[in-house]
């Protein structure tokens, strides 16, 4: 990718937007009121807004390696706090993706340096769901299932925050787990049953 090309693309994009709506950028500069916080992977193939077909101003986005929500990660926690308590979003989506190299790396015995503590969070997901995962003999299927379970556990981490627990009581609010299948382009709703998960975890994690 030629960096100079990016600036040419940018000018084309400005021209297209202004052709359709001369006020497009002046309207954007008035502020944002997105209804959705999307937490996804940094993977260059999983282009959040493009795959969802959303416009500027519609989705607040946080991306990191393997779409993680570690409880002590100041960046993820700040994003959740700002989105929920200030922007007043109604939905938080954790979106994983099949063929995630972060999840794959966590399944292997290799010293990844600074990535070790980050990927250890995924190893913890494996340990939590070891009984189910160990029954899957096909490596590809096991890898996919770990990706789904990682999404589920990151959603649980979202639910552990006081901002989200308050939002659940305050207004119409949902936490959803999705997976993007790079091989087909399909966005899949994992339809995680949070009511039953919540009953189980809130005994321990209730703050509000
Ligand atoms: Co990934």
What does this structure look like?
The protein is of the alpha/beta class and 208 residues long. The protein has two domains: 30 residues, no CATH class; 175 residues, 3-Layer(aba) Sandwich (Beta-carbonic Anhydrase, Chain A), CATH 3.40.1050.10. 52% of the residues lie in helices and 15% in strands. The protein contains ten helices and five strands. Strands 2-1-3-4-5 form a five-stranded mixed β-sheet. The radius of gyration is 19 Å and the shape is globular. The mean pLDDT is 95. Bound molecules: cobalt (II) ion. Cobalt (II) ion binds next to helix 5.
Structural features:
alpha/beta; 5-stranded mixed beta sheet; 5 strands; 52% helix; binds cobalt (II) ion; 208 residues; 2 domains; globular; Beta-carbonic Anhydrase, Chain A
Distance between the termini: 48 Å
CATH class of the largest domain: Alpha Beta
- CATH T-level topology of the largest domain: Beta-carbonic Anhydrase, Chain A
- Compute the number of strand runs: 5
| CATH architecture identity of the largest domain | 3-Layer(aba) Sandwich
Continuous helix count: 10
Query: Strand-residue fraction?
Result: 5-15%
Q: Please summarize the sheet with the most strands.
A: 5 strands, mixed
State the domain count.
2
Uncertain parts:
none
């Amino acid at each position: 990718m030629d960096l100079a090309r990016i600036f040419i693309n940018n000018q084309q994009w400005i021209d297209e937007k202004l052709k359709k709506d001369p006020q497009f950028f002046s309207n954007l500069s008035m502020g944002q009121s997105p209804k959705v916080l999307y937490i996804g992977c940094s993977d260059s193939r999983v282009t959040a807004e493009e795959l969802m077909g959303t416009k500027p101003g519609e989705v607040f986005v946080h991306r990191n390696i393997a779409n993680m929500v570690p409880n002590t990660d100041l960046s993820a926690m700040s994003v959740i706090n700002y989105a929920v308590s200030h922007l007043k979003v109604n939905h938080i989506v954790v979106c994983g993706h099949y063929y995630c190299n972060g999840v794959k790396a966590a399944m292997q015995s290799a010293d990844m340096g600074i990535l070790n503590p980050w990927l250890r969070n995924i190893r913890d997901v494996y340990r939590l769901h070891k009984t189910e995962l160990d029954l899957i003999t096909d490596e590809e299927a096991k890898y996919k299932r770990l990706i789904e379970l990682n999404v589920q556990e990151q959603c649980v981490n979202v639910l552990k925050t006081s901002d989200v627990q308050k939002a659940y009581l305050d207004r119409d609010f949902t936490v959803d787990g999705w997976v993007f299948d790079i091989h087909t382009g399909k966005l899949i709703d994992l339809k995680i049953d949070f009511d039953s998960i919540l009953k189980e975890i809130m005994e321990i994690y209730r703050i509000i």
